[in-house]
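P.,

For your records, the input lines for the assembly:
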Amino acid sequence: METEITNKPSRQKVTFIVLISIISVFIIYYSIMSMTSPVRKLEEIKNKFGSKSAENNEVDQRILMDSTYLKLLKEKAFLQSRVLMAETDSIYLTINLADSTANLEICGVVVHKAKMNSVKTSQILVKGNENTILSMLASPFTISHAFATIKKEPLMIKMAPKDTSEYKPDIMPDTSITEPVNYILEMKGGIRIYVYQEENVKFNDRMSHLSFDIKDKLRDTWSALKNVAVLKVPEYHPFIKLRLPRTDAKIIFRAIPKNGQIAVYS
Amino acid sequence: MKNKKIIDDSTQAENEKNTAANNTANIKNINMADNTLSQKTGARKLLFSFFHSVFIIICSILVIFILIIFILYVVPVLMEFSPQQKTEITNNKELMKDPLYKKQISLLTKDVQRLSLKFNAYTSGQSYIVINTTENRFFLYTNKKLVREGFCSSGSYTMLQTAGNKKWIFKTPKGKYWIHGKTTNPVWKRPDWSFVEEGSPIPPKDDFSRYEYGVLGDYALALGDGYLIHGTIYKRFLGMPVTHGCVRLNDDDLKVIFNTLNIGSKVYIF
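Structure tokens returned:
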């Protein structure tokens, strides 16, 4: 008796191939959409700030590429931002990427100076059109959200004793506890300032940094996936990543108000 | 002869019987071998399907893991490589001779100088104090120079709550303040929370039990809204957040600050 041998692929194999194809197509689509987002963001910045620089400077294109002119323009933009913020009574932050310092100021008075250990900036801020970026930096950024590993106000709730017999005097607070300090300040224009503590020797510090980073990436990916699902280009957040000593990072986060302002000198 | 034939027949029958028995035994053996073989093949098949399933599961986990890594870490890196046009910065000497260029540069320089002057004017040449509530430290400046620094105590960030849901938050306010008043040998008029905190009944507004002498040190500088910079009897707590909102200093620092700052001097708290 002859047996008919057929090479029909099993149902499992077909499902597997279809699944892999769908995933591959989705990844390609997601990657392309994500890669177009910085270009779109730059266009958005150009539309918002690019026209300003063209109106204010009636000069030929050569001057817009001149190093002396750009240096002065940078200084002017930074000073303009600082003067604007100094006129408010609030505490604000100035980040100078050129000399790696982050200062807290109140009404034009530098109240705290911090030295940055390392700085990493988004390519859009480095490679983007200098004039457009400078026009954007001429006005301070306002914080819209903050994500942090520490509390802004470490409030402790204490119930009042019913009578003097229940009263217990306050004990000395434990100042030896050092919690990892990492946070993100998201600005209204979508720019993000990441501040990580410099000290990463302890296992706890490294794990906190890793989990904080993963949480941030998951948040971003989720939002990007939602956009991609409705055929929208995901939102791109230009960033500045700083590493500061833990104490300085904590002081800045606790001092700056919820909707505080930040000026950046690039 | 006949006997011999009978013997031959019986031998043959016996042989046939033996052969049959042997055959049966062989068949049994073959069956047993078959059974063992099929059992072995079944076990092998089971083992194979088990390893196959494990392999598929591992592969699936690996694919999902790679996918997550790709989306979380590779895509953001790829985003940074997207094409952007960089401004080519030049240092054209011909351009520097251009009168329009010179005009633009001089205009910009004037703007920068004007803004610098405006900004520098914010920092007073008079004395002022900066208080860091996170580190519980103070910095005293005169003529824009640091003249003294040390430890202080600021608000404890405690919220005192009563059964009746009355609340007080003990924190030092942040921002720009100024000295509203200066007092020597200050007397502390205990507010309501001070009694609530101890579980004591709240006395009338101007009751004598509200007044305490010697607990605020030798001097006090008022910041407004009841907040003071004063001395303390709890010197071991200096450098820690333990107060009800006021700023506590040790006796020597307080004396210097009291003598340096005037009414109207700025106090920057962050």
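Two observations worth noting. The longest strand of chain A covers residues 141-148. The helical segments of chain A are 11-56, 67-86, 123-127, 130-137, 203-229, 246-255.

Regards
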